[in-house]
Amino acid sequence: MLSKKIKSITPSFTISISAKVAALKSEGKEIIDLSIGEPDFMTPDAGKFAAKDAIDRNKTKYDMVPGLVPLREEIVKKLSLENQVNYQPSEIVVSSGAKNAITNALIATLDPSDEVIIPAPYWTSYPEMVKLCHGVPKIVQTSEENDFKLTVKQLDKAVTDKTKIVLINNPSNPTGAVYTRSELEPLVDYCSKHNLLILADEIYERICYDQPFVSIPSISQRAKEITILVNGFSKSAAMTGWRLGYTASNSEISKAISTLQGHLVSHPSTIAQWAGYGALKDGKEEMSQMVSIYKSRRDQLIPILNNLNNVSYVTPQGAFYLFINISAYKQYYTDSSSFSVAFSNQLLEEQQVAVVPGIAFGNDDYIRISYATKIEYVIEGLNRIQKLLATISK
Ligand SMILES: Cc1ncc(COP(=O)(O)O)c(C=O)c1O
Description:
The longest helix is centred in the C-terminal third of the chain and has 23 residues, at 284-306. The chain folds into two domains: 4-42 and 286-388, Aspartate Aminotransferase, domain 1, CATH 3.90.1150.10; 61-283, 3-Layer(aba) Sandwich (Aspartate Aminotransferase, domain 2), CATH 3.40.640. The chain is globular, with a radius of gyration of 21 Å. By secondary structure, it is of the alpha/beta class. Helix content is 44%, strand content 14%. The protein has 14 helices and 13 strands. Pyridoxal-5'-phosphate binds next to α5.
């Protein structure tokens, strides 16, 4: 009864890990859960206030498909002030989370068998989203030596006459890599010359620690024309459950996205949109505090990571994940079809620590841990990982 398309989709690893963790917790086990990509902060007060006010003032009817005008105006202001790129409100489409923004962008631009270049390690949903939107994911492995960043050379090797989109997630989930301007410029140049669109997922853009963040469309007028920018409120505003994201793109693409959104979902909940409006307008201070806390956690974790036996990593420059190379231990798992899954299962069963196996991000040599949780948990989690590593190699 099911379509071929749905049968080609892999269920989400992260969701299956959450189910396992919930089952173990229900048996009374205490689990250190480092698998979740969700901030441990709450919605900024300004967002909560604006949402409550919207309910009290009955702002609960259908509204404009691309999103509330005041919210889109606030997004335009934010993009101009923080990211140095100027859009019109008509070029913004507010969606139900960045996930919905990405799928909107893919549906609006892909024809069957168009290829989308996805640098690995990648956020786990990208290849499945591309397949669901009739496209073909083309995975390009980046290397730890190059801080997991895509180069023009790698891109050029992967591009074919079917390539339509290059997806760049900056800062990256799972690696925390952040591209500099001089790393982005040649990629933009290449895409421009080869008539490729860039899908720039910048949802972690505010969570950037060591260098100023450079938004791809801010690089040049041409960069802006060929880029579909994706951003949202889940990560930097800790507003995951409100389901609010957006695209900013040239007017041809934004109109198309708006048309399809009009048929599929109309628009995200108006209450959620007012919450986003409040958070953007008056919640900056709270959001900056969250980023300082993530940075301080990262800085505390690095020396502990350095003490783990025979692992390597690239210091994350943004987002809130550590992507740890455990490939030195692969030799002890020759029976398993996926080393990172077997290792993660053993870690959960023997040390009660939940992490995400690297295979979920397209590289089986790694595990991902999230530090969007209490620092004491993460430190305890790393200590237990060290215990497991010691027993494996005995
Ligand atoms: C890179 C990346 N893009 C998009 C999303 C989806 O965000 P949202 O909750 O806004 O749908 C996530 C969530 O984990 C993510 O890590």
